[in-house]
Amino acid sequence: MPSNKYFRTEGPWSDAKVEMLCSDTGGWRSERPVVDETKCIFCGFCAIYCPIQIVKEQSDCFRSDLAFCKGCGICARECPAGAITMVSEGEFK
Question: 24-43, pLDDT tens digit by residue?
Fold first, then answer.
């Protein structure tokens, strides 16, 4: 078993009984969500439907933590206002 500095479990949620593996995205994501703040109605559906729960409330909209976002696009599909679009990672390099 690795030393204590390593986590023992990987998963999107925790029951607080074991430490979780840090599941950062790395460089393999092909698309990222981009939020148009002028369209966001602050409903929180993106946060509710995010399978790994990395969408967080900001002052006037919700944003994904891009260090952990897998680029699945569920947040964009579930947004009733069309405020989230998936944009190719190549446009950000």
Answer: 666 678 899 999 999 999 99
Tell me, what CATH number does 78's domain have?
A: 3.30.70.20
DSSP letters, the chain, are ---TTS-SB--S---SSSPBP----TT---EEEEE-TTT-----HHHHH-TT--EEE-SSSEEE-TTT-----HHHHH-TT--EEEEEGGGG-
Q: How many domains does the chain have?
A: 1
Task: Report residue 45 as tokens.
Answer: 């559906």
Phi-psi label, residue 30: left if phi above 0, alpha if psi -120 to 50, beta otherwise: alpha
Altogether, the residues listed in the chain come to a count of 93
